[in-house]
Amino acid sequence: MEKVYIETYGCQMNFADSEVVGSILREAGYTLCTDLQEADFVLVNTCAIRDNAEQRVRHRVRELRALQNRCHKLRIGILGCMAERLQSRLMEEEENVSFVCGPDTYRRLPQLLAQVRQGQRAAEVELSTTETYADIEPVRLASNGISAYISIMRGCQNYCAYCVVPYTRGRERSRDPETIVREAQTLFDKGYREVTLLGQNVNSYSWQTQDGACDFPELMRRVALIDPALRVRFATSHPKDLSDKLLEVMAAHPNICRCIHLPVQSGSDRMLKLMNRKYTVEWYLGRVDAIRRYLPDCSITTDVIAGFSTETLDDHRATLDLFRRVRYDYAYMFKYSLREGTYAWRHLADDIPDDEKTRRLNEIIALQGEIALENNRLEVGREYEVLVEGESHRSKERLFGRNSQNKVLVFDREPASGISPAVPGTYRRVKVTSCTAATLLGELVQ
Asked: How does residue 65 score in pLDDT terms, banded at 50, 70 and 90?
């Protein structure tokens, strides 16, 4: 039985896809291994959202060449968005790559690997309008047995000017809700206590059934009803589609986590229009107000891009002002990276110097760090129900978990006298005693 080693880069969707790949290959008779030295095949599941992500993969592929020189049986395959974007060109540029496989052709991997064993190089990169892998039960790779991802839809058709995703993952299509609920139920029965429903824009989820349409709020309701002890999260929401109906469902089910990721990308209406984001700052702030009206204890996180085409200092300052108004709990912050094939690549100049992009990005990062610390200081003295996940990365004497707001809480493994120790996979009350900008520190309470 030949052994396959899978490495994953990029977003949560890629990690969920790697688990689908693992299931397909295991069913075909391959063994999944965790030791690179034992592998016959290394599959690198890639991200193409920014140039830096692709450069990391290229660097890794070149690192693997040394291992190939020592172990001539080793073959490398590139999966995912980078494979779809570059297709067979990738094998020309990276001579030690034997095959590439796009995100909609994973079912063909056993045939691809067979071709490679015969000395061929191959590419499978056809996009689909129907593939959702709904019938495949993913292998939970490197799972903690507590939290898991469930992909509910694939693709995107928002066509934001800067984004390559519609070209690497195809058009939007949703998955049968019955298969989603069944997968969540199976995970809960196996001891998992948290699932995250994934899609490029989960608010667009839609499925027509004999009993009528199932939209995203209805899907969330169905998953939440599996059991009150199952936490339900989701990612990612597009601000233009975040509905009051979803917020009402969240408010009605305490096990739907109080955390919404709401990418803004810019605080300038001019930039939002140029980015083709299909909302204004006023609309966005209205959605933030609605979240806080329905869910006063909800955390809000975001994505932002510094230095998009023609961004002025006034546009940049508008983004800083928006951060001050919303006061995000966390933000993914990046400088603009021009991606081949996008609308911006075809029509807009990448005209902000790299050092100026970096300067603006650092201003946003510094401001968000201040806001996150101030937000966390307000948490001191509060108690939260925490899903215990495991040992702290910094100390074996401490455990960590997350609250409904997706904030990390770290606490002593050995609690005060009279309080039972915490066990991963269980819910415990934790009182916040101090904090950093990224972490809440606390103690177990009865």
From this structure: very high
286 CB contacts (<8 Å, ≥6 apart)? none
CA distance 13 to 206: 18
User: What per-residue confidence (pLDDT) applies to 446?
Assistant: 84
> What is d(CA 26, CA 19) in angstroms, rounded to the nearest whole number?
11
How far apart are alpha carbons 163 and 196 in whole angstroms?
A: 23
**Cα 115 from Cα 126, distance rounded (Å):** 18
Residue tagged 């949703």 (tokens) = 174
Complete DSSP assignment for 169-232: H-S-EE--HHHHHHHHHHHHHTT--EEEEE-TTGGG-EEEETTEEEEHHHHHHHHHTT-TTSEE
Inform me whether the pLDDT recorded for 211 exceeds 80: no
Residue type for 45, please? N
**Residue with structure tokens 């699932």?**
195
Between the alpha carbon of residue 373 and those of residues 159, 255, 358, 376, the distances in Å are 35, 26, 22, 5
Place of tokens 């891009």: 305
pTM (two decimals):
0.95
Are 37 and 222 in contact, with CB atoms under 8 Å apart?
A: no
Crossing angle, helix 354-377 and helix 313-326, to 10 degrees? 10
Q: How many whole angstroms separate alpha carbon 155 and alpha carbon 200? A: 7
pLDDT in tens, 308-319: 999 999 999 999
DSSP string, 141-179: TT--SSEEEEE-EE------TT--HHHHH-S-EE--HHH
pLDDT of residue 233: 98
Counting beta carbons within 10 angstroms of the beta carbon of residue 212, is it exposed (0 to 12), middle (13 to 18) or buried (19 or more)?
Answer: exposed
> How many C-beta atoms lie closer than 10 Å to residue 60's C-beta?
15
Band of residue 71 on the pLDDT scale cut at 50, 70, 90 = confident
**Closest CA relative to residue 343, chosen from 309, 314, 371, 319:** 309
Using the predicted structure, report yes or no on whether residue 294 has a pLDDT greater than 90.
Answer: yes
pLDDT at 407 over 80: yes
Q: What is the mean pLDDT of the chain?
A: 96
Average pLDDT, integer, range 238-249: 97
Residue-by-residue DSSP string for 349-365: ---S-HHHHHHHHHHHH
Residues recorded for the chain: 446
Residue 265 DSSP class:
B
